[in-house]
Amino acid sequence: MRLANPIYDTVFKYLMEDTEIARLFLSRLIGEEITEIVVRPQEYSTKTKKHGVTVLRLDFKATIKLGTQEPKNKKDKKNWRAKYKTVLIELQKAKHNKDILRSRRYLGDNDRKKDDIMGADGKMKKEELPIVTVFILGFPLPPIKTSALKINRVYTDLITNEVLDVQTEFIEKLTHDCYAILITELPQKERSKLERILKIFNQTYILDSDNKFLEIEDKELKGDKLLELMSGRLRYAATDEEVLQGIEIEQEIEETIDQHIREKEELKEKLMERDEKLKERDEQLNEHRRLIEELKKQLKDKK
Predict the structure, then answer these.
(1) Measured between alpha carbons, how far is 48 from 50 in angstroms, rounded to an integer?
(2) Could you give the CA distance from residue 8 to residue 211 in angstroms, rounded to a whole number?
(3) What is the domain range of residue 81?
(4) What pLDDT is stored for residue 48 in this prediction?
(5) Cα angle at 20 between 56 and 4, to 5 degrees?
(6) What is the CA radius of gyration of the chain?
(7) Which residue, 99, 63, 53, 101, is CA-closest to 83?
(8) What is the pLDDT of residues 18-61, one digit of tens each?
(9) 8 in the same domain as 135
(10) Which residues, 6+ apart, have CB-to-CB distance to 78 below 8 Å?
(11) Which of the residue ranges 43-47, 126-130, 205-209, 226-230 would you say has the lowest mean pLDDT?
(12) Do 256 and 53 contact (CB within 8 A), yes or no?
């Protein structure tokens, strides 16, 4: 089966626009039942000064409702559990130094935002929600060798060193759970249900003639409802003209940026070579000066 490659922003956006797929995918990833999901794709663009290229970013945002319930007594902060959360997903194919700064700024922007949720009275209200971040990365993070990570917060009593099985609203809204999917560490043979659905991100299935597509045998995609839904949607994406055009634009932008980076590295190397030559020349001049001074001294001594 030929699938559109979901590591492209355009394809990933197309995949996650299916709310049932988004709900099941996030449920499988975070290990909690999501009963409702409101997908809020975020698009924004920046223009490079040197090349005049408009770079479009597609970040995924969703408000989810979990199966866990808040305590009936709202004052019971000891057993407080978040019912609604905001999920942010960022997909990064390559590692660039500015990505961390951009991600922190993006996270900070969402920290300041309130989300629309349904109140107990049936009316919509705005509220700050706990945030869960998901990073789908196309590059390794040594020395980590696993394909999926969860970085969560643990409440520890520093007096007794006891791990506390509690949550409190203030801390939950102030700090974040984080998940990371390392595409480069995905094995050919999956080891869990999570890795089974992540098969569609595995770049070992790239079509030799075109990175835009993956080629996976039908039998490898059967037997898991979510994997079948995801692969089916990606199969349609592989023939959708709008999606394919979006991939081509994304590729052109990446090639332009890569060319800019290569030119910058080449210029840096040339400058380093020039500096090295200047350094050698300075050393030679200093040696000549030293010899001249020595000759002068010898002449003076002879006189």
Answers:
(1) 6
(2) 10
(3) 2-239
(4) 47
(5) 50
(6) 28
(7) 63
(8) 999 999 999 999 998 998 898 875 554 444 444 444 444 446 88
(9) yes
(10) 166, 168
(11) 43-47
(12) yes
- Which has the closest alpha carbon to 181: 168, 166, 194, 171? 194
The one-letter amino acid code at 105 reads R
Are 26 and 173 in a shared domain? yes
Identify any residues that bridge with 222 across adjacent strands, giving them in sequence order.
none
Strand ordering across the sheet containing 210-215: 2-4, 210-215, 206-207
Model confidence pLDDT, tens digit, residues 91-121: 888 776 566 766 777 677 777 788 888 776 7
Residues 53 and 131 in one domain: yes
Share of the chain above pLDDT 90, in %: 41
CB atoms within 10 A of CB 136: 20
Reported in sequence order, the residue ranges of the chain that DSSP labels E, i.e. its strands, are 2-4, 34-39, 42-47, 54-66, 84-92, 115-118, 124-127, 131-137, 148-151, 155-157, 162-164, 177-182, 206-207, 210-215
Cα 303 from Cα 297, distance rounded (Å): 10
Same domain, 260 and 298: yes
Task: Indicate if 117 and 192 belong to the same structural domain.
Answer: yes
Task: Give a yes or no: residue 246 inside a domain.
Answer: no
Q: Which of 199, 218, 239 is the last residue of a domain?
A: 239
